Amino acid sequence: GRLEAVTQQMGYHPQYLDSFLKTQHYLMHMDGPLPFDCRHYIAIMAAARHQCRYLVNLHVLQFLRAGGDPQWLRGLEFIPPKLRNLNEINKILAHRPWLITKEHIEKLLKISEWSWSLAELVHAVVLLAHCHALASFVFGCGCEQDEGLGGRGSLKPLSLGNQCFCEATAGNSCSQELLRINRKRSLDSCMELDSLRERMQRIHVETEGRDEMRLLQQDQEEGEGQGAEVGVQAEHCSDPSAGLSPFADTDGEVTGATNLACYMQDPDFGYQDFARRDEDQTQVFRVQDYSWEDHGFSLVNRLYSDIGHLLDEKFRMVDGLQSSAMAKRQGCEPSVFKRGIWNYIHCMFGIRYDDYDYAEVNQLLERMLKVYIKTVTCYPEKTNSEMFDRFWKQFKHSEKVHVNLLILEARMQAELLYALQAITQYMI
């Protein structure tokens, strides 16, 4: 139930891995405004927007470990209205964050008995942005393909078994607390997994009988109308099957998430080029008016204690990663190359820096690199392992991972800027 494939890739940059693991652990397992089961369900909702089975399956397991109601895993219709009301900002943040307004925030905070507190909403927003961005990394580095092929994808695991990857990585400064937690989990994970398998198998068996006829009828109805829509369905990676999300396969292995569509509404809503927005939509977001350093950090840290420091450390860590060889291949200084990637990603979300010459982007980033970055950032579910292997042949594997880390953090900060600005406007 851990992010082993992800940490194996991030392990090429152990200092960043340490910062990422601390943030991930704090968001999911430390004291905070949201109940633990709700945190994992929100993560499921976020990952489902990009059809990221790797993250959905991970959080389905952790949701049950946290004592979550198995019925919730049947889809949004089976969860409390308070959680279901998050669907709109989940959808917008994942694909067109510039559409977030103070009205979205007000609606969530003022719905009588199902209202959110500001602290809860900030926690939820950080979780959504974290999981959307992590889905980009999962697809960008091929972790989703490896998961789907049972670990036989193009990116081979670097460690085996239950060992925490950061323990096997030279030079990693992983904190003692994280090491202790991972060692404890490695000792009891076998018993927990056996218990989960039995529980999930029991759930499946209990519901299989009464759901069988309904599912067959749904499949038949959907099958009749599928012929003309095959291309569209393939593009959105949708799965017409239905039923309980987690189940045990014939080998007894926990799989899960047979139908990711049950965790989202309006599946056709996706990224749209910011430059093609309607005139009455949100104007360009200028960092000089609202920035992470001057505005977002203080707000998020005040409403969700200490998370601002962890996020800030992560943003600074990815900016400080060494990229001299990567920049040299592009014929520029490391800081110039990294800023070009970062600003290009923010530009796709309508975020502009007045002090930056955007003509540099076309000079620094070759066309194929830009295509890759845009795909991983805006519609990561369309990324495949061949794209990772074929693009940037002059880059080392660790350098490709570095670029994916830049995508992860730039995307997350972009979502947070829009959401926190909307919260600030609501408060004012």
Give your account of this protein's structure:
It is found in: Cytoplasm. It comes from Dryoscopus gambensis. This protein is mostly helical and 428 residues long. It has helices at residues 4-10, 14-29, 36-48, 53-65, 81-84, 87-95, 102-109, 118-140, 143-148, 176-224, 230-236, 292-303, 307-320, 324-329, 334-348, 359-364, 367-378, 385-390, 397-427, and strands spanning 285-286, 351-352. It has one domain. It contains 19 helices and two strands. It has a two-stranded parallel sheet. The two termini are 41 Å apart. The model is unreliable at 148-194 and 203-257 (pLDDT under 50).
Helical segment count: 19
* Sheet with the most strands: spatial strand order: 1-2
Q: Assign an overall shape.
A: globular
Question: What structural class do helix, strand and pairing data support?
Answer: mainly alpha
Helix and strand topology:
Layout: H1 4-10, H2 14-29, H3 36-48, H4 53-65, H5 81-84, H6 87-95, H7 102-109, H8 118-140, H9 143-148, H10 176-224, H11 230-236, E1 285-286, H12 292-303, H13 307-320, H14 324-329, H15 334-348, E2 351-352, H16 359-364, H17 367-378, H18 385-390, H19 397-427
Parallel strand pairs: 1-2
Helix pairs in contact: 2-13, 3-4, 3-8, 6-8, 7-19, 8-19, 12-13, 12-19, 13-19, 15-17, 15-19
